Automatic annotation (TrEMBL):
<dbReference type="InterPro" id="IPR002328">
    <property type="entry name" value="ADH_Zn_CS"/>
</dbReference>
<dbReference type="InterPro" id="IPR011032">
    <property type="entry name" value="GroES-like_sf"/>
</dbReference>
<protein>
    <recommendedName>
        <fullName>alcohol dehydrogenase</fullName>
        <ecNumber>1.1.1.1</ecNumber>
    </recommendedName>
</protein>
<keyword id="KW-0560">Oxidoreductase</keyword>
<dbReference type="InterPro" id="IPR013154">
    <property type="entry name" value="ADH-like_N"/>
</dbReference>
<dbReference type="InterPro" id="IPR013149">
    <property type="entry name" value="ADH-like_C"/>
</dbReference>
<keyword id="KW-0479">Metal-binding</keyword>
<dbReference type="Pfam" id="PF00107">
    <property type="entry name" value="ADH_zinc_N"/>
</dbReference>
<dbReference type="GO" id="GO:0004022">
    <property type="term" value="F:alcohol dehydrogenase (NAD+) activity"/>
</dbReference>
<keyword id="KW-0862">Zinc</keyword>
<comment type="similarity">
    <text>Belongs to the zinc-containing alcohol dehydrogenase family.</text>
</comment>
<dbReference type="InterPro" id="IPR020843">
    <property type="entry name" value="ER"/>
</dbReference>
<dbReference type="Pfam" id="PF08240">
    <property type="entry name" value="ADH_N"/>
</dbReference>
<feature type="domain" description="Enoyl reductase (ER)">
    <location>
        <begin position="8"/>
        <end position="334"/>
    </location>
</feature>
<dbReference type="InterPro" id="IPR036291">
    <property type="entry name" value="NAD(P)-bd_dom_sf"/>
</dbReference>
């Protein structure tokens, strides 16, 4: 099968022929129809995180496709069914985290497109317990980004604890952020969008943001305070550490900042104002299978329409260069077959 392989950190991916994987017990083989390209895939290719990906990785964890073969003992999937892979590719199911609704924190978890091969190839493997069940009638291009961007920002917005009618800042209006604006609007929140690129802010307005701030042109903290009175919550999806240091200052007293963006590095946090204003800073990673089912339901009900540009697998290195330059509006989706 044709696949894009990370042959070495920070080197271009090699698009080449590799063997079609065989489904093991409890697994299914999926013919990939479309896959989103997440900035995490770029981090994996660049090797810029503390934990390296598997050797000869096939990235991709927003893969949508059709089950074509079942491994031994599979009982909950059938050939022809439409499924997706996800970052949370599998978890142990028996540890304290798995038992208490936090399978995303399971120490035995496997991660699609990072620890196990993902969807940047014509076929991929899924674990029957964690394969995303795709709603009937889903658009192959639109539904793929829900598998990571969608579930991540949906969970992140829940973690901000922002209520309907209250203000949430979405900082970073890329693949995740432009979908976050839509989930926030659908969840009844008022949205203020922050990015460093006017084109992204235009996209945010298109998707329902009431306030937009270009952090490259003005102080985003002062602008958010002036135009919202301070946000009840801030969701940071940006790929620059600067956005993380700015987030707490955008909050009103008692506000919650949720970080999902993962640029390498650290951020400054002012102790006194964090304590005095009772600011909560929370990390959030993807979502559980239940969160994903809920995020897919928002999509199935027509509340979420990712802005998509379709590209080819052979152009993945060019896509990564444009992503690194912050030039991608919405989400890139690669399509392998028409279906
Ligand atoms: N926590 C999780 O579970 C999770 C899940 C998916 C992705 N991620 C991470 O989220 C990040 C974003 O992913 P993506 O696919 O949306 O990336 P993307 O490249 O599509 O978008 C990044 C956005 O950040 C904006 N940006 C850059 N500097 C900024 C600044 N100083 N202030 C505000 N905005 C700024 C860019 O203009 C761009 O719009 C990546 O680091 C990715 O690894 C985390
Ligand atoms: C710690 C890595 C989290 C990445 C989630 C999928 O983009
Ligand atoms: Zn992702
Ligand atoms: Zn577990």
């Amino acid at each position: 099968m044709r696949a894009a392989v990370v042959v070495a950190p920070d080197k271009p991916l090699l698009v080449t022929e590799v063997p079609i994987p065989a489904p093991g017990p409890g697994q299914a083989l999926v013919r990939v129809i479309t896959t989103g390209v997440c900035h995490t895939d770029l981090h994996a290719a660049r090797g810029d995180w503390p934990v390296p990906p598997k050797a000869d990785l096939i990235p991709g964890h927003e893969g949508y496709g059709e089950v074509v073969a079942l491994g031994e003992g599979v009982t909950t999937l059938s050939v022809g069914e439409k499924v997706g892979n996800a970052w949370l590719w599998s978890a142990c199911g028996t540890c304290e985290y798995c038992r208490t609704g936090w399978e995303t924190l399971c120490l035995q978890q496997k991660n699609g497109g990072y620890g196990v091969d993902g969807s940047f190839g014509e076929y991929m493997l899924v674990d029957e317990r964690f394969a995303a069940r795709i709603p009937e009638g889903s658009d192959p291009d639109e539904v793929a980004p829900i598998l990571c961007a969608g579930v991540t920002v949906y969970k992140g917005l829940k973690e901000t604890e922002v209520k309907p009618g209250q203000w949430v800042v979405i900082s970073g209006i890329g693949g995740l952020g432009h979908v976050a604006v839509q989930y926030a609007v659908a969840m009844g929140m008022r949205v203020a969008a922050v990015d460093v690129d006017d084109a992204k802010l235009l996209l945010a307005k298109h998707h329902g943001a009431e306030v937009t701030v270009n952090a490259a042109k003005t102080d985003p903290v002062a602008a958010i305070q002036e135009r919202t009175g301070g946000a009840h919550g801030v969701l940071v999806t940006a790929v620059h550490t600067e956005a993380f240091g700015q987030a707490t200052g955008m909050c009103r007293r008692g506000g919650t900042v949720v970080f999902v963006g993962l640029p390498p590095g650290t951020f400054p946090a002012d102790i006194f104002s964090t304590v005095l204003n009772r600011i909560t800073i929370r990390g959030s990673i993807v979502g559980t299978r239940q969160d994903l089912a809920e995020a897919l339901d928002f999509y199935a009900r027509g509340k979420i329409h990712p802005t998509i540009t379709e590209e080819k697998l052979d152009d993945i290195n060019d896509v990564f260069e444009r992503m690194e330059a912050g030039k991608i509006e919405g989400r890139i989706v690669m399509r392998y077959v028409d279906a």
